[in-house]
Hints:
Layout lengths: L7 H14 L3 E6 L8 H17 L3 E6 L3 H6 L3 H10 L4 H19 L3 E3 L5 H15 L13 H12 L7 E6 L6 H12 L5 E5 L2 H4 L3 H16 L10 H12 L4 E5 L5 H8 L10 E6 L2 H6 L4 E4 L5 H12 L10 H11 L3 H11 L4 H13 L3 H12 L3 H14 L4 H10 L4 H10 L4 E2 L5 E2 L2 H12 L15 H8 L10 E3 L1 H5 L6 E5 L3 E3 L12 E5 L17 E5 L14
Parallel strand pairs: 1-2, 2-3, 4-7, 4-8, 5-6, 6-7, 11-13, 12-14, 14-15
Antiparallel strand pairs: 9-10
Helix pairs in contact: 1-2, 2-5, 7-8, 10-11, 14-16, 19-21, 19-22
Amino acid sequence: MKAFERGKRSHQSSYKLLKNQGLPLLCSQKTMLIPNASKWCLEEMVKFINCKEEREQKVIPIFYHVDPSEVRNQREIYKIAFSRHEKNADEEKRGKIRRWKTAMREAGKLAGYDVKVDSYESEIIQDIIKEICGTIPMVLDVDEKIVGMDSRLEKLVSRLEIQSNGVRMVGVGGLGGIGKTTIITALYNKISNQFRSTSFLTNVREESTKDSGLLKFQQQLLDDTLGVKGQLTLKKIHEGVKEIKDKLSSKKVLVFVDDIDDSRRLEHLVGKHSWFGHGSRIIITRRKKDLLKAHEVDYIYEVDKLNEVKALQFFCSYAFRQCVPGKGYGDLSIQVVRYADRLPLALKVLGSLLFRKGVKDWKSELKKLQEVPNMEITNVLKISYDGLDHTQKMIFLDFACFFKGAHVEIVTQVLDGSGFKAESGINALVDRCLITISTNKKIEMHDSLAQMDKEIVYKECPNESGERSRLWKHEDVCRVLTINTCTSEHEIKFTFEAFKRMTRLRVLIVNNNQVQLFEDITFPSHDLTYLYWAGYSLASLPSNFHANSLVFLYLKDNNIKRLSERKLVS
């Protein structure tokens, strides 16, 4: 323990240290202290016991050359010492003496170390050190470069309401790579010293796909919180559930469950508030908010992207090992931050990639990223995509390729027209933080996610654009739909053959008034729900145009004289 000078200030300083550090306390009892009865030592004893009772901190008494029963019952030399204190004492001092006696009596009841005259003190010291080290909460490794952490932690801590006595569960949600694990790791380091029993379960999604993995996490939870590693062995998941409920229902614990994606696993680890003792706090991270809501957490903290200033600082901490861009790299740095769209994972990966590279290399990497996304970023983001069902994936790919920034109500009708049950699918994407709906009802999504989706479509058939499910790039559309390779400077002619194989065309967007059509052109329209054509060159829609499924029709700057020779809708 830290040494203090005797006097009033030392009482305040030691008490503050004990409250803030949350470490086990060594309370030495020596016969040599009592005859002269140091008031300072006795006051320190009261502080130690108060910390134990008020904050549930552990106190380890060391009975040095004295029988614990003498301390507990205050016989022999202790009785004589307190008699001396009571002699000529006024009422105020008698009140202090009563507190000293109570504190000493409580200390004497605690299990500790009995150091007798003939004991091997070096061995006892080693045992004490071992116990202290096992009691001190571990400090987890956390990214020290992250900016804006203090304000996030302050908000999260306030939602935990640590001073309240009830059991509280808090969910932390957000897009993959947004920094959920980093934030809760920093949170653990900040508050774990206020709990005697803690457990931090990491990578739950990856490592609990089988029952054996889930059983491992149940085992870790019990080992961590009970301090009984090796003494309790679980064999079945239902056995683990019972042990957790039985053993932890009266124990104040701090538990972190990081990255869990299955309600069954969550139920078998931290099923209900009643599984844990008063004052317990359970923190759960999840990409899907619906799982957190279904688990009836008390509050969901959604992690937002960094603002532009903090995003630039964070990127620079990796790219330059300082918080500002290097000379000559200012504009390039801003371009990278915009490409990363302020996502911490992307900023970290790209900053590390560009560290110590020249301007020429930076420009080359930026050009490459526009065509091919960084796989380290994509692999993290794709976890959320892989968790979608088929219809949700179809909707998500449509958003990335065609409807990013579009009005959600129009898109909902278009998707419903294709039989996609849009409302359910859109809610699922919002819940997984894959898209957001702005206040003006526009569909928004992270640029890295949009690029990932387009890469998924590209990989459907890398060498033949006509075999892919969606086309959005100018050159790919030209290659598939025209008789000649085209550029923006040349007239584009769509041919009949171009559309012939598109038997399930759902969405057609032409935003180029240079497109020319042959009079006899036809295109499959039975499944067409969305038709946007700027500069439509013919006087009417094709004679065989079917509008049975059409939801949205927009012909801008057109030469239309009549929609069709026949009724559009049968």
